[in-house]
Design brief:
Elements: E1 2-4, H1 20-33, E2 37-42, H2 48-58, E3 65-71, H3 74-82, E4 87-93, H4 96-103, H5 107-123, E5 128-134, H6 141-153, E6 158-163, H7 170-183, E7 187-192, H8 199-208, E8 213-216, H9 230-241, H10 247-260, E9 278-279, H11 282-290, E10 308-309, H12 317-326, H13 333-350, H14 356-376
Parallel strand pairs: 1-2, 1-8, 2-3, 3-4, 4-5, 5-6, 6-7, 7-8, 9-10
Helix pairs in contact: 1-2, 1-10, 5-6, 7-8, 8-9, 9-10, 11-12, 13-14
Length: 377
């Protein structure tokens, strides 16, 4: 299950300020993508009440649960309950460094506060209580498990294991998830940051290791390098496990968020980049012409993409022959040699693949050269 946090984690990205209209568009887009749960914001966030009211009007509850993030504070709990929030995700640091430097608490103090707040949440009719174990990748595992047991005893339903600074590798993620799945009856979620580029890999590994949910955001936006990217995890689950997330909607939403957040999307960015179905290498051009699946994990149509096959400095005779065939041009062996050499030379001089009209000019000039050569013979 995917829990999208674009409206919470993503909105905390440096320099990102979504308008109320954009937040509504993101929520609607996430529902169309097929995301099962949306973390719609945080306690105390400006505009949260209006977004919650809008969400209730469009009534996504049948297919998409809405959760609000909150610190472990009584005032925030009471405010959220008064707003009618019934699903809360509390953030609870579990590493000693965070306990000491953020909360000025020891381990016993944290457990007491956790027990008190969760019992109050139950009394206030909060129907779903999740607790994020923040910085769990740097915590003492025995203590982290103790916190998880306290969550279970106090009426919680889920723990979310947070790799707060993205230290975990996939193997470490697997061991972490498996340990908590084995030793608690709670639902286990995972929130992995992308500081070392492993956000998506760790999210996919967490699901494969028994986690019931993983946190994602559109384009992976969030604090610092962000978290696992919604479109990447969704596509992987579709291709490898037969999930049915709407990838075209995911990509459309990613582009809208990129514009709203003023984020430049690399042309080779997974799922979203303009050139992810572009090719100029001879071997790959041959393979794609015969069977696209040889070099593509999914069809461009699934993400509203376009395949671009171009000739360039990396193309050989077979690729030039294919391009000529597509234009109904018949080439002899010698003419093919000349044309292939000229394709490479022009591409190298331009430092880019050739456009169709540039290839046509080369075809025409090569034909003229070849005709002159034959006349001289």
């Amino acid at each position: 299950m995917l829990l999208d946090s674009t409206l919470r984690e993503g909105a905390q990205m440096y320099g990102v300020y979504f308008t109320d209209t954009m937040r509504r568009e993101i929520l609607a887009g996430l529902i169309r993508c097929g995301v099962e749960e949306v973390e719609i914001g945080w306690a105390g966030q400006d505009g949260l009440q209006g977004l919650l009211q809008h969400a209730r009007r469009i009534d996504p509850a049948e297919n998409c649960a809405l959760t609000v993030w909150s610190p472990l504070r009584r005032l925030d709990l009471e405010t959220m309950a008064a707003m009618g929030v019934r699903r809360l995700q509390f953030g609870v640091p579990v590493s000693d460094a965070h306990l000491k430097n953020r909360l000025a608490l020891d381990r016993k103090g944290l457990l007491r506060r956790l027990r008190t707040i969760l019992q109050q949440a139950v009394d206030l009719n909060i129907s779903f209580i999740g607790v994020g174990l923040e910085d769990v990748s740097r915590a003492d595992m025995d203590f982290a498990l103790q916190v998880a047991r306290e969550v279970e005893l106090s009426g919680g339903q889920r723990i979310r294991l947070s790799d707060t600074v993205g230290l975990l590798t996939p193997l470490e993620t697997a061991r972490l998830i498996q340990r908590f799945v084995r030793q608690t009856d709670l639902l286990v979620g995972f929130h992995g940051h992308d500081d070392f580029g492993m956000g998506t890999a760790n999210a996919v590994t967490a699901l494969a290791s028994g986690a019931q949910s993983v946190d994602v955001s559109v384009l992976g936006i969030g604090e610092r390098s962000g978290i696992a990217a919604l479109e990447e995890v969704a596509a992987h689950l579709n291709v490898r496990q037969g999930a049915e997330y709407n990838l075209s909607e995911c990509v459309s939403l990613a582009r809208a968020v990129a514009e709203a957040a003023d984020i430049s999307v690399a042309r080779n960015k997974a799922l979203v980049g303009d050139d992810i179905f572009a090719c100029e290498t001879g071997l790959h051009l041959q393979g794609i012409a015969k069977a696209p699946a040889l070099f593509e994990p999914f069809a461009p149509e699934q993400v509203a993409g376009t395949r671009k096959l171009s000739l360039g400095g990396k193309s050989g005779k077979a690729a030039v022959h294919l391009a000529a065939d597509r234009q109904g041009i018949s080439l002899s062996g010698q003419r093919m040699e000349i044309l292939t050499r000229r394709v490479r030379e022009l591409s190298q001089s331009l430092a880019r693949p050739l456009r169709d009209e540039e290839f046509q000019v080369l075809v025409d000039t090569t034909a003229e050269h070849h005709a002159v050569h034959l006349d001289r013979e």
